[in-house]
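[READ THE FOLD]
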Amino acid sequence: MTVPSPSSSPFFDSPHGRRPRPRLAPPFESPAQLALIGLGLWLAGALLHPLGLLAPLGLLVLLVAGLAYLLRPRSHTMYWRGRRIDLDTNQRRGPTDALYRRLFRR
């Protein structure tokens, strides 16, 4: 059995011998995906009687998607030398922006 050298093993990158955990990607691309999931849950609960408990859950997910849409961070898009640039209009990043970024990629 060969012992890996410190330069070839990812375990030797950090001072404690452990790899840093990668940051998890947000589960949804945008609030529209969450709204589609909520709509599907609501339809399943409304149309199939044994799954009736899904109807209120679907409405709750639709409500959360609507709130996320209203609280999404605003950005301003402009073009400079033929390239698209996205500028943040609100310089202060508050707790709502941090929560939105944890749930959605866009």
About this structure: Residues 26-70 form one domain. The chain has three helices and two strands. The first helix runs from residue 31 to 47.
